[in-house]
Amino acid sequence: RSVTVVLNHWQRPVENLLGQLRAAVASIAVEVWVCIFGSPLAEAYQAAIDLVQAEEEVGRPSKIRTVHSDVDFGVYGRFLVASTAKTAFVYMVDDDVPFPVSAVEQYL
Known about the structure:
Elements: E1 3-9, H1 14-26, E2 31-37, H2 42-55, E3 64-69, H3 76-82, E4 89-94, H4 103-107
Parallel strand pairs: 1-2, 1-4, 2-3
Helix pairs in contact: 1-2
């Protein structure tokens, strides 16, 4: 089963993104998209994404995709992004939700 994980981040601590992103990359997800819409923490979030991408296995394409806009699309942006996923399932996670590595497998 193919799954895209969409992480939606706006103003929560960068540590939340690091934990979610590392767990999502380690999961069975085909792709992990990080949505950053109108966030005052956009630069810090991008630095965290860059760090996790550097930790990914060398020689394999990165699972991580960043969707960034200076515009805050409210709750609608993540759903619009999710509707473009090519996988059978999309799992959306807000920035305040703990994300265990086994979450995707548990929900399938």
